[in-house]
Structure formats: structure tokens, C-alpha cells
Amino acid sequence: MTERSGQAGDATGGPAPTTPVCYRHPDRETYVRCTRCDRPICPECMRDASVGHQCPECVSEGRRTVRPARTAFGGGAAGRQGYVTKTLIALNVLVMVLSIASARSGSAVAGGGLGGLMGNSTPLTDWGAVLGYAPYVAFGEWHGVAAGEWYRLVTAMFLHYGVVHLLLNMWALWVLGRTLEAVLGPLRFLALYLVAGLGGNVAAYLFSPVHASTVGASTAIFGLFAAIFVIMRRLGRDTSSIVPILVINLIFTFTVPGISVAGHLGGLVVGALMALVLAYAPRLRRTAFQAAGGAILLVALLGLVLVRTAALTG
Question: Which residue segments constitute the domains of the chain, with CATH numbers given?
Fold first, then answer.
């Protein structure tokens, strides 16, 4: 028998074809290729794609080049999780706990307010409520927004007179906030909430008696009521279920004693204006227009505070 030596080959005499191996794991044979770059990939390197599979590098590149999803008003899709709404509720509850803790003296509990649980004021609400210009009885010093305590225009929207007051506002925030945050996105929703709350507190400063104290998230809540009406109209959705709820809340505002009419109406008007800015900003450079509109509202509110302060202290 004759022996022959030489290189193995195919029927045509050429070299035998080799099995493809994964470009990241050369010791693994594979017949699957990345649908984007056509490199062979093993099961460990496969990433599901709309068609076939892609390699890890192509998936990372695609994530860098694909624009993140946005809502109809330019907000981020993260708003669907309701993180801002939940955070605002948690912050209000925390401040309520601090308010109760600030009234732990025996006289405050024995006085029937149970440390602020039943609606009485506490040292914290005295410190943070919207107050025009009045002296504290115990000290005789003048306090209030007109005395330079502008922080009250912000802190008041996180304070409440009692648990019932808190629960009513937080229920409304839970219902309205999640819907608006999902539509607007987290940052735009937060801007709406804060601007509306500030607007209501500025209105309380302008039109309430100078010695009256005002607290509550309802200034911002009424702004959300107005905003959800504006936003739903802009999206072409039915608003017939919103109007009766808004009317009922307005009736309560005018008929129930102790409610700040100016604060509720101020929040309603400013919330509507901010919602109009967010909803009707032109698509081209939308974020810039929305930011400019919000800034104009803030400057207008600042001007009103300055005018009121000059009238009280002049």
C-alpha cells in the first residue's frame, strides 16, 4: 500500500473550511452572527434585538445613539413611576411629624390640640406659616413676610393644621400627582407644584389679614386641579369628570370657615398659567420656552410680594 503525506483539503484540493468562533471567546464555536456588525457571537454574548441578536458592543452603541423616550410635553418617561409625587407626600408627612414633635410640651397637649394632631397650631406652624406682618404676643417682635421672613411663602405649603388637613391634601396629591407627573415628567411636574403652591401663598399674603396665618398644600393642590384640566384639554381628552370635582372644591372653599380663599384661588390661577406654559410651548426649543415662562411667573410673583411688603412697612 502506498502512503501519501500532505495537507488535508476539500474535494477541490483547497484547505478545509474552519468553524467560526465567538469574537469574544475564541474557544467557543458558533454559527450565530450579530445582526448589526456580522461578527460571530456565542450564546453568552447574544443580546436580543428586534431582529435576531446583537453583540454587547453594538447594544451599548445603540443605547448611546437612541434618544430617550419623552412625553408629549418634553418630560422624561420616569414620571410614570410617580417618584416626585411619592417624595412630596413623604415630605409632607415628615413635616407633620416634626410639627407634632415641636408641640410636645404639656400645655400644648393638655390644651385639646394633642400636639397639633387635631388642628391646633404648633411652634413649627407658627414659624413656617404665611403671616403678613404681626408681633408675637410672647416676644413683641414683628414677624411675617413683610419683616423679611420670605421663607414662609415656601414652607407654608408643607405644613398642616392637624392630621385631617394633611390626609385630605395628600389624598388629592396622590390622585392628581401621579397622572400629571406621568404626562409632564418629574421635573416639569415638580416645577408646576412648587410654582402653584408659591402662587397661592403669595395670594394669601396679598389678600389675607396681616395677622392671619395660612398653611397647607392646598395652594399647590388647587394648582394641580387647574393644571390637569388644561393638560387634558391640550391632549384632546374628556374633562367632564374634572369640572364637577373642581366646582365642589370651590364651594367648600367659599363656605367652610377657616379656609384661605385667597390661597386656594391664587394656587388655581397660577397653576393654570404654569400649565398653559408647559402645555402650549412650541415644539421647537420647547424646554427653553417652558423655562422662560416659569421664570416670568416667578418674577411676577416676586414683584407682587415687593409691592405688598412696601405697602405694609412704608
Answer: 18-60 (no CATH), 77-313 (1.20.1540.10)
